[in-house]
User: Fold this.
Amino acid sequence: GAVTVTDLRDGGTRLVTQSPDYNRLDGIAWTPWGTVIFAEETGGGLVYEVDPATGVVAPRPAVGLRSHEGLRFDAQGNLYGISERANGAVFKFVPDRRGDLSSGQLYALKVADASRTGAAVWVALDRAQSQVNSDQAATNAGASGWNRPEDVEIGRNQVLYVAVTSENLVLKIDLSGDEAFVTNYVHDVPGFNFPDNLALDAQGNLFITEDGDPPPGNDIWVARAGQGGAIERFASLADCAAEPTGIYFDNGAHILYVHVQHAGGPLSNDLTVAIRPRE
Assistant:
């Protein structure tokens, strides 16, 4: 496994870190203090933190061992993530000291109602057990579970969005300290299947990629801000064997970058596509 960085000004790419110990790297995010975290999408997977300037890497087991993917920080430096499995929980990690992921308290979301919508609380997990198996720690604490949550995104006014792939569902979680409120934000939409990765633009519009089994192929959808979870198809891949993944906006939130993997056709080249507004 490896982490690379591409300079968008000249297109040059360089290696940041690589190790035979890295297993199925997936989730990645900037920290508020200028380092990068990346994680393993496998049972018992770790989160790592790397200084991109020096390449120095440190594992962060306090964040929890599980199958990671989406990772996002809130304004207070708390880290949100998921467990990509059947009955996977939504997690929040609060460092003991802001900017230090080596120790802290891991929580999992517990919704009061059996519908898994409505009022919810963050239940504290056993610290020692979380560093071995945070899935089991969440189960022991009575946390709520969803079928393969994959990506998370933090929006305005402390709103957390979670893509739940195997339920064709995107959650909206309003955050308020130790409490939360869960809504099924995008659901029951014809043609919308296996939501995977999420990205927010400057206007608060939520872009969602699909991770299904073609045909008919995978698309990118958008839920416009202020429209209550109504969505429309934004883009389709001409290559029906491929999957759009790892979407993110540039710092100005005007250019959407889309990674295309599992490409078909004679070349079978994975690639990154930039989608810009019309001039």
